Amino acid sequence: MTGKAKPKKHTAKEIAAKIDAATTNRGGGKAGQADRSGVEKGGHAKLECPHCKTTAPDLKSMQIHHDARHPKIPFDESKLNNLHASNSGAGAAAAEPNKPKPGVRGSFKK
């Protein structure tokens, strides 16, 4: 006989939570690091603080950061670095043709 308070089976809520934890990208590893740094367009880090180089996804978050970390410096929206504008897809595509392309099985053709 098992205890009355102990459930014998997993609940639907618990199974859904496990599936969500297994399939959702939580930002770990190299993909998460690139996403946080804003190197690729579409990353979560859009704005960069000009004083401490901390990144934030939007203007409101950056203003909160600025008020908390740099209270003596007035907040100027024009000084923020927009990482998505500076690392546009067109600039990355123009640099690609200069790189040698790998041949068969990853070796470089001469």
Explained architecture:
Residues 1-11 have a biased composition (Basic residues). It is found in: Cytoplasm; Nucleus. This is Protein METHYLENE BLUE SENSITIVITY 1-like. With 110 residues, this protein is mainly alpha-helical. It has a domain at 37-86. It contains 5 helices and 3 strands. The protein has helices at 12-23, 29-37, 59-69, 83-86, 89-95, and strands spanning 47-48, 55-56, 81-82. The chain has a 3-stranded antiparallel β-sheet with strand order 2-1-3. Strand 1 and strand 2 form a beta hairpin. The longest helix has 12 residues, at 12-23. The relative contact order is 0.10. Residues 90-95 have low confidence and may be disordered.
Structure in a nutshell:
Keywords: Cytoplasm, Nucleus. Residues 1-11 have a biased composition (Basic residues). Helices cover 39% and strands 5% of the residues.
End-to-end Cα distance, whole Å, is 74 Å
Number of strands: 3
From the alpha-carbon coordinates, what is the Rg to the nearest angstrom? 23 Å
Q: What sequence of helices (H) and strands (E) makes up the elements? A: HHEEHEHH
Strand content: 5-15%
- Biggest sheet details: 3 strands, antiparallel
Helical percent range? 25-40%
Structural class: mainly alpha
Low-confidence stretches: 90-95
- Physical arrangement of strands within the biggest beta sheet: 2-1-3
Put simply, the count of helices is 5
Mean of the pLDDT scores? 76
How does the overall form come out from the CA principal axes? elongated
